[in-house]
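Hey, weird one. I pasted the DUF833 domain-containing protein sequence into the form twice and got a warning about non-standard characters only the second time. First submission, copied straight from the form history:
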Amino acid sequence: MCIALISTAHPSYPLILIDNRDEFLHRPTAALDWWPSPKSHILGSRDMARTAHGTWLGVTRSGKIAVLTNYREASTSAAAIIGQRSRGQMVNGFLEATQDTTAREYVEQLVSSGDAQLAGGFSLACGDVKGPLAIVSNRVEGKNGITWIAGRKGETVGLSNTVFGDRSWPKILDGERLMKEAIEASVKIGESEDGLVDRLLGLLSTDTLPRLDEGGGLETYIDLLKESIFVPVIGDKEEEDLWKKRFQKHVHHHNRNNSHDSNGGGEEGKKIHHHHAGEEICSSRVHDKVDVIPPPSPREPPSHMYMSGVYGTQKQTVVLVHESGRLKYVERTLFDDDAKAIPIGEGDRVFEFMVERQGGGDGEGGEKVG
C-alpha cells in the first residue's frame, strides 16, 4: 500500500514529493539511475519483474515528473490486479513523451484511448515541476475524472491505493498533516537541505500499523495497511520458504527448457550493474546491488511469481525542487532483492541537476551540479 505526498507549502521549494514504495520484497527492482540511451534524460528506478521495466516514480532533465500508486482492487483475481499492461508503462509513457506533450494532453489521451483500462488499477499524478499536476485514475470514468493539484502555494495532498480524495484512509490524513508540520518546523528553524531530507525520510518511516497476535502475511494485514504510512515486514518463515520453493521450481523449469539451446544451457537471468555516469552526489555509501532479472517463463509470468513472500516498505524517495530550478532526488532502499535488510543509509542514492528550461529538447545535456 504505497503512499505519495506532494506539497507546495515550502517557501524555497515550490514542489516537494515524497513516496514510499510498498512491495513484495523479492520483487527485482533496478536502483535509482539515469536510464539507458535513448531514454537517458529520465531519472528513476525501474521494476524489473515485467518486461516493460516500468517505474512508479521518475523525473526528466526538462522537469517532467510523474508518480503512480496502485489501486486496491475489490477482485482477488491475479489477472484483474496485474492487468494486461504494466502500470509502470503509464509513468514511462509520460516521461518518454515529447517535451511539448502537456500533462493535460497525455492524461486525456490515456483516458480516451482505452490503454489505461488494460492495466491493473492505478492513480497517476504527472506534470511539470512548475505545476500544476494532473491526477487521473483508470478506475474513474471519463475525462471528468481528471483532477489538478499543486497549482498554487500552500497545498499538501496525499495519494495512496484508493481513489484520490478518499478521506477515510488514516495514512493519507496522517501523511498530509505530518508533511505540513515537517515543512513548518523546518522553515521555522532555518533547517539545512540535508536536515529537511532527513526529516522527510523520518516522516516516511512513521509506523502505526496495528499488530495482530496471530501474526500472518499480507492477506491477514491487507485491511490494516491503510492505517500506516510505513509498512514493516509482513510475513513469516513459512511464507518465505514457500516463495523460495516456488522460485527454485521456476528456475529449474526454465533451465530444463533451455537445455537444448545451442550454447548448451540457459541463463538463470541477466545481471545488470548500475554504474552509469550521471550527476550523482553524496553517494559514498551507496549499496552496490546487482539486480537479477529472472527470465520469462512460458508457463508463469514473472509478475505472478513476485506476488508472494514477505512484504513491506521497500524504497523511500524524497524529491525537492528548489526555486532556482535545482532538483534533488534521494532514494533510500531498505531491502535488497533477497529481502535482506540494508543498514540505514547504505542503500541511499542521491542525484542533483538543474532542470532545463531553454533549448533542452527532450532533456539531453543537463548541467552537472556538485
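That's the output from the first submission. The warning seems to come from a hidden character in my clipboard, not from the data itself. The radius of gyration is 20 Å.
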